[in-house]
């Protein structure tokens, strides 16, 4: 999802090669409606034992009206944002430290590389045992997930700052304490934002999974409950909500990224 | 005692250690006078960029010393402006902010910075682009902005590493004339690296020819052409003669036989 950020920025693309003079947005809508129709068709024909779009929609309205959906969304978002903000807030300075000081890099990097290889979800059992079943273990796991992806991106950003830019600043009289805020930080922002986006993605994926295991509220918890009662429409509502919220957060960050890095030369 | 602006005294620079090390610069001795425009040409690996980086204070010496105004170089200094081949503009800053970068570091007040940046942006013909970001500029405009940025901190010497190397032939000629024009109006010592023999002769008072493996001084060729350079000079017989002389000493260097 981070590999091709530029394609999403062109909703007006025309597919004239196919003879379809439709803007991309209209094609998106066509695909969406076709998917919905397909879903309706296979469920209406009883080809699969799944709830149809109508049933899911009705359940969504129900859950929205009785406030449960809002509560679940709020619980999940609160966890993900707390963990994510803490993770990113620690990761960015640590990443800068690792990129700028060789000693810090040598001391920290082995740990980062090692913990990166452990899926954050694998830490859940340990977190529950040591931190109880409160909010703490969930937030900790999300913190870990977002910290690890942000720290690597920030560190990569700092070490890939163009040497010539640093030299250019030095010959203009800048010392390290000026070069760092005026050159290194702005030059690494594009990398950091990619890391933040990946971090938020993995935080979101992690929160839902963490709630499946231990929670009293949240979208993951709701699905887990629904599973016990064979309540498929609720599972669908939760899944769709998770997808939409993830998409919205990613798009918001993408928009922020484009704003903050509008100075970058991009390949057309 | 001669009045040298920039002196290389027995400067050597070795890269790497032990078996794999190589000598990038071997005992370079060079005196450049105040206000002189010298160009440096030579095959790749002749140490011309190494020499410039040492003079800029971006790289240390393995042996010998470099003096600027008689004082040993120990790091970058505002009296030496550097212009890089890759422009090295800060892409997140506008043309004006780039030009004012060094002035901010000096701690000049905003009004003073503005006055200076206006002057130099005008000098390189970018007044209409003062608020543009580098990504919107052409290669030639970027290099002009880099020149304005270097000039703004008022260096007494300019070190230029193939500044016009990435430009097309037409823009390059235009930039050469513009550089000479600015140089004649605000005279500075210029140490200009190029791989273009025509450019080397056209701009210089003296052409320094270097040789590779190890990088060393090969020959100094004085350019005895009228002070004011123009198309007429470029097409003259005298120009062609010096050009041939430089060409010959760059491309027909006898390999060094090491004992």
Protein model, in words:
- The complex is a heterodimer of chains A (268) and B (259).
- Chain A is mostly helical.
- Chain A has 10 helices and 2 strands.
- In chain A, strands 1-2 form a two-stranded antiparallel ribbon.
- In chain A, helix 3 (68-100) runs parallel beside helix 6 and helix 3 runs antiparallel to helix 8 (176-213).
- Chain B is α/β, with parallel strands linked by helices and 259 residues long.
- Chain B has 8 helices and 10 strands.
- In chain B, the strands form 2 sheets. Chain B has a 6-stranded mixed β-sheet with strand order 6-7-8-3-9-10, with helices on both faces. A 4-stranded antiparallel β-sheet of chain B has the order 2-1-4-5, covered by helices on one side.
- In chain B, helix 2 (95-106) packs across helix 3, helix 2 runs parallel beside helix 4 (139-152) and helix 3 (110-123) packs across helix 4.
- The two termini of chain B are 35 Å apart.
- The mean pLDDT of chain B is 90.
- At the A-B interface, helix 7 and helix 8 of A face strand 6 and helix 2 of B.
Shape descriptor of chain A reads globular
**Helix and strand sequence of chain B:** EEEHEEEHHHEHEHEEHH
Largest interface: A-B, 21 and 28 residues
**Residues in β-strands, percent of chain A:** under 5%
Largest sheet: number of strands, sense, barrel closure of chain B: 6 strands, mixed
Instruction: Detail the poorly predicted runs of chain B.
Output: none
Intertermini distance of chain A: 18 Å
**Number of E strands of chain A:** 2
């Amino acid at each position: 999802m981070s590999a091709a950020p530029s394609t999403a920025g062109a909703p007006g693309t025309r597919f004239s090669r196919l003879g379809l003079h439709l803007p991309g947005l209209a094609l998106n809508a066509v695909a969406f409606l076709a998917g919905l129709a397909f879903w309706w068709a296979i469920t209406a024909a009883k080809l699969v034992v799944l709830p149809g779009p109508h049933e899911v929609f009705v359940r969504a309205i129900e859950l929205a009206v009785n406030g449960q959906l809002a509560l679940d969304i709020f619980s999940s978002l609160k966890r993900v944002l707390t963990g994510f903000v803490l993770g990113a807030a620690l990761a960015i300075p640590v990443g800068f430290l690792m990129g700028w000081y060789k000693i810090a890099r040598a001391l920290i990097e082995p740990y980062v590389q090692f913990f990166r290889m452990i899926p954050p979800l694998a830490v859940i059992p340990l977190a529950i045992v040591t931190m109880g079943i409160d909010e703490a273990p969930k937030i900790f796991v999300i913190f870990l997930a977002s910290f690890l992806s942000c720290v690597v991106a920030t560190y990569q950003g700092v070490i890939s700052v163009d040497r010539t830019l640093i030299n250019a600043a030095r010959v203009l009289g800048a010392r390290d304490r000026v070069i760092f805020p005026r050159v290194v930080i702005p030059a690494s922002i594009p990398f950091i934002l990619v890391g933040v986006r990946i971090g938020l993605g993995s935080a979101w994926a992690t929160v839902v999974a963490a709630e499946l295991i231990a929670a009293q509220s949240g979208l993951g918890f709701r699905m887990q409950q629904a599973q016990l009662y064979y309540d498929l429409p609720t599972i669908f509502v939760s899944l769709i909500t998770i997808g939409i919220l993830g998409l919205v957060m990613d798009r918001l960050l993408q928009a922020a990224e484009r704003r903050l890095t509008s100075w970058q030369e991009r390949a057309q | 005692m001669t009045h040298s602006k920039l002196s290389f005294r027995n400067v050597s620079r070795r890269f790497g250690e032990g078996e794999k090390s190589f000598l990038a610069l071997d005992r370079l001795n060079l005196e450049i006078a105040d206000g002189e425009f010298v160009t440096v040409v030579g095959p790749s690996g002749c140490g011309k960029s190494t020499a410039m980086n040492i003079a800029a204070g971006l790289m240390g010496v393995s042996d010998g010393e470099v003096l600027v105004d008689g004082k040993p170089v120990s790091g970058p200094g505002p009296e030496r402006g550097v212009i890089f081949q890759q422009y090295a503009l800060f892409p997140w800053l506008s043309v004006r902010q780039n030009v004012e970068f060094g002035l901010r570091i000096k701690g000049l007040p905003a009004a003073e910075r503005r006055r200076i940046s206006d002057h130099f942006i005008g000098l390189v013909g970018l007044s209409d682009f003062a608020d543009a970001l580098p990504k919107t500029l052409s290669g030639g405009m970027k290099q002009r902005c880099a020149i304005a940025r270097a000039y703004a901190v008022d260096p007494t010497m300019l070190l230029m590493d193939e500044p016009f190397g990435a430009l097309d032939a037409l823009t390059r000629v235009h930039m050469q004339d513009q550089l000479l024009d600015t140089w004649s109006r605000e005279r500075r010592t210029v140490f200009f690296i190029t791989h273009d023999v025509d450019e080397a002769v056209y701009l210089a008072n003296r052409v320094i020819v270097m040789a590779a493996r190890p990088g060393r001084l090969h020959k100094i060729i004085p350019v005895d052409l009228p002070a004011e350079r123009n198309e007429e000079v470029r097409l003259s017989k005298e120009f062609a003669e010096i050009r041939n002389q430089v060409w010959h000493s760059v491309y027909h260097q006898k390999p060094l036989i090491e004992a």
